[in-house]
Amino acid sequence: MRKREKRLDRAARWCVGFLLSLVFPLCVTAQEENTADSADARVDSLQRTLDLLTRKDEIRSEEEQFAKIWKQTKFISIAYGAPTLKEMETGRTDKGKFGVSVQMGKTFFLHKKPIAKMVKIGLDLSYINLEYAKYKSGSGLKFDFGGLGDDDDYDDYYDDDMYDDDDSSFDLDLGMHQLDYGIGFGPSVQVTPLYHVGRKWEYLKVFTYFHYTPTYSMIIQSEEDQTTLNHGFCSFFNFGIGLSYKMIGIGFESRWGKGKYNMASLDDNDVEDGFSSGDKQKLKTTASRFFISLRF
């Protein structure tokens, strides 16, 4: 009996050992697989964190680049071009000899980030629009030396229109001048077409604008012993296109507008009468000019 029990005990231990030899490799393999899965998960987590940090850094760099490109919102421009003045009722047209203008203002962008990284839409407020124009009419100062007109040589040298033999005075003929001041506002669009090229080309901009400019206009006309002052409020419009790089820009602008002017005249032959009110007249001004601009 004892021998039989010993044989059964050995057989049981052998079975247990055999089963353990089969199960142990499976446990080791499962453990290794769990360890590998855990390592892969940690690597994936680290990679996602790295990608997130990289993306945040790219976004931060892009926003800093946008800030550099679009930081100039204030502007000043100087334009040159001769205007044309037309009297609507009579059809009389006066051509400008030259004209200059100064504009100062600020652009308020309607959105923070540029559309497609290239386009920004804004609203311009041009709080200074100062215009001056000199027209071709008028011949300047004409002097009348009175008694010197008895000299035949003097008569031959000076034309009769330049003086009056019966009066020792001088005639003031300053021609026609126009002085305007207004405040403009309206939409503007700026585009950086080469933004994706890089290499500093992202600072190149194409821009356009359209402004409505309520204006106080004054026209002084001094011709043939008569000085006339015309003044009134007018509605002007400005449309411009241009090209800029960083702070400096150039462009072309068209300006047009009309209004009713109050007329007042000063008769040089009867100064005591002073200014006398007259009728209103409707005048139209048009101009095309080139400009240079600075943004800061």
Provide structural commentary.
The protein has 296 residues and is an alpha+beta fold. Helix content is 25%, strand content 51%. The protein has helices spanning 2-70, 152-157; strands at 74-80, 83-87, 93-109, 119-135, 140-143, 170-173, 175-191, 204-223, 226-245, 248-267, 275-295. Strand 9 and strand 10 (248-267) form a beta hairpin. The longest helix has 69 residues, at 2-70. It starts with a helix and ends with a strand.
Topology:
Elements: H1 2-70, E1 74-80, E2 83-87, E3 93-109, E4 119-135, E5 140-143, H2 152-157, E6 170-173, E7 175-191, E8 204-223, E9 226-245, E10 248-267, E11 275-295
Antiparallel strand pairs: 1-3, 1-11, 2-3, 2-11, 3-4, 4-7, 5-6, 7-8, 8-9, 9-10, 10-11
